[in-house]
Amino acid sequence: MEDTLTPAIEKSISLLRKRVERAAESIGEDVLHNAYPFVPIDTGRMVSSAYNSPSESTEHRVVRRVGYATEYAMKVHDTAELIHGAAYNIKYAKRIASGIDHLRRDTEQFKFLSKGVVLTDTKRHLRKVLKNVF
Questions:
Q1: Checking CA distances to 6, which of 56, 91, 105, 119 falls within 20 to 30 Å?
Q2: pTM (two decimals)
Q3: How far apart (Å, rounded) are the C-alpha atoms in residues 70 and 76?
Q4: How many domains does the structure of the chain reveal?
Q5: In this predicted model, what pLDDT tens digit does every residue of 15-60 receive, in sequence order?
Q6: Residue 127: what are its φ and ψ, rounded to 5°?
Q7: What is the Cα–Cα distance from 83 to 40, expressed in whole angstroms?
């Protein structure tokens, strides 16, 4: 009896792992999508460098790395003193009006990636993964 159960259990575990990997990828995509309105955009280089890639997964853990691959992304994300969005437009209104600078989206802010994480419904992804597995 044990010999016939083992392949079935291994198959279920393999299926579940593949679903969890797909869910992790989908969660990463949602995080980036939800973060997009808050990402400060000057040249567009940082927002274009978005990545969602597998990383450091083990037999019992699936990990993805999500972020922006510019040398300044972490500083822009973590520095509250930097001015973004509507506040930027107000502070630099004369430069914007003269064409030296450009308007920023009102929603831009620091901690933009964190905002994307908060707005992502991870439970929805996990429910989908567990549906019809057992």
A1: 56
A2: 0.84
A3: 10
A4: 1
A5: 888 888 889 999 999 999 999 999 999 999 999 999 999 887 787 8
A6: -60, -40
A7: 9
